[in-house]
Design a protein that fits this description.
Elements: H1 2-17, H2 27-30, E1 45-52, E2 57-60, E3 65-67, H3 68-71, E4 77-82, H4 89-102, H5 106-111, E5 113-118, H6 126-134, E6 143-148, H7 151-161, E7 165-168, E8 171-174, E9 177-180, E10 185-190, H8 196-208
Parallel strand pairs: 4-5, 5-6
Antiparallel strand pairs: 1-10, 2-3, 2-6, 4-9, 7-8, 9-10
């Protein structure tokens, strides 16, 4: 428990430092509306047009194929591409997701998937991903899934999800988190400039109906 508290404290410090301001926007790929929360029912960035739940298959931390589109169909799903050695954006994003979920009713948490796809195919093996995700799962009842694959497989998954990646220290991560609803479309996305914790919690309730 002490170790986890230390990790969360470190993440809070990282959140103040941040690095997203130097990263390119994902708008050209996913149609992020720069008026997040200004109009409409979402606090995140509305996607225009809405993005269908992508169909890709990668390997989970148990070494089994995980067909994203099939396995998560009909469930609220948060999809994020990143890497465990990321110094700020990735852990900050995952911490925001955890805190957002903790604020929601247990029934909604249990329906939700959080899918993390590693973009670091050389260093992020199953054990590394499992340990890293464990920092963000205490007291959360959502289903967390860590995925990995070859460079070609991960790039194909990125293309299927229509995400744009930012580069940091020679490694890439996504500039956004996609939220898919039970209708199997992503109508909204989040990034570190969109008050992620509050926005994710609010919009999860909206998409869940």
């Amino acid at each position: 428990m002490k170790k986890f508290v230390a990790v969360i404290a470190a993440l809070a410090a990282l959140a103040l430092a941040g690095c997203s301001s130097s990263h390119p926007s994902a708008a050209s790929k996913t149609g992020l509306n720069d008026q997040a929360g200004a109009t409409g029912k979402y606090l995140g960035f509305p996607l225009e047009p809405a993005q269908p739940r992508p169909q890709f298959t990668l390997t989970d931390t148990a070494g089994k194929p995980f067909a994203f589109g099939t396995a998560t169909a009909g469930h609220p799903t948060l999809l994020f591409f990143g890497y465990t050695n990321c110094p700020d954006v990735c852990p900050e994003t995952m911490a925001d997701i955890r805190l957002a979920l903790k604020s929601l009713p247990a029934e909604l948490q249990k329906k939700t998937y959080v899918v993390f796809v590693s973009t670091d195919v050389k260093r992020d093996n199953a054990g590394v991903i499992t340990k890293w995700l464990s920092y963000f799962t205490p007291d959360v009842q959502a289903t967390y899934v860590g995925l990995r694959g070859t460079d070609d497989q991960v790039h194909a998954a990125e293309a299927s999800a229509h995400v744009m990646l930012s580069e940091e220290d020679g490694q890439t991560h996504s500039a956004e988190v996609l939220l898919f609803g039970p209708d199997d479309y992503a109508h909204v996305a989040f990034n570190s400039s969109s008050n992620e914790q509050q926005s994710i919690a609010h919009d999860l309730k909206v998409v869940a109906g």
